[in-house]
């Protein structure tokens, strides 16, 4: 897939290339040394964070959100595991229960954690229509609502413009955020989400400092490695926060058919989870499971580590994967990075390069690469 993106060799819609199979090891693998996330770090907006971050969507934006006590325990486990970059959104949930209300509870109980967490909050969406609203009135409403519901328990380190509004000039949107919120100290800085390389370059040309870019990156979705986003972030020194590093749960190996994803609500309607596409996409999961077994780790750990290893290469910025999890056990599993040798990384890169994922990342109604 990467070669298709990088070299633009023409259409190959739904082409299925032979999948690679690794020979089983002749001897049992040696015990794997896992790397605790907290022992590695990078900086986002001047704040040191762990090599892995934490996505908060699953706590509040699903048909059956976990109990609050379970969510609070998982948040604490993420913090204690060194996953100190947290990514939420104003629209993750309902007006009564959402990212902000959950975090208000957490930081009320654990106020000492607040300054050690780098919190990125997405917004700039009309909560009724679920469409981007980058107008001055729209972003004011969004940021003010986030701050009100956090109730002073945690500063918003970065406000992330969730999707670019085609009806509002970028300068108009960012002028409002910069002058009324960043320069007044109400928030720490500006981030972009699900953006194109062109938007990144435009923001830089306008003189705005973009502190982070949140985009999808996984073995299922390596698009940003070849569509200019990674190159733009590298050029302007912007770290990437990589969402859905385990393919919305597919790369855990726990989904085997369409019935097993029905509980995911709207995600189960995404093109990649439709029956025909899912049957094909599980072939990639099988390859990851095989290599993970040889490596002595879980498929999710291998998938997350591959994403993290995409950063720091020549011509690439820092990449901080932000996997989500709603149980302590899953948080602890995801928090441990797997060391990958040059040969192992090359093998994984080749698998990704030669695998054609079926189905788009989102339904056609959802704006992407804005």
From TrEMBL:
GO terms for cellular component: cytoplasm. Keywords: Oxidoreductase. The keyword Oxidoreductase applies. GO terms for molecular function: oxidoreductase activity. It comes from the Eukaryota. The keyword Oxidoreductase applies. It holds the Pfam family Aldo_ket_red. Residues 52-352 form the NADP-dependent oxidoreductase domain. Residues 1-30 are annotated as: Disordered. This is NADP-dependent oxidoreductase domain-containing protein.
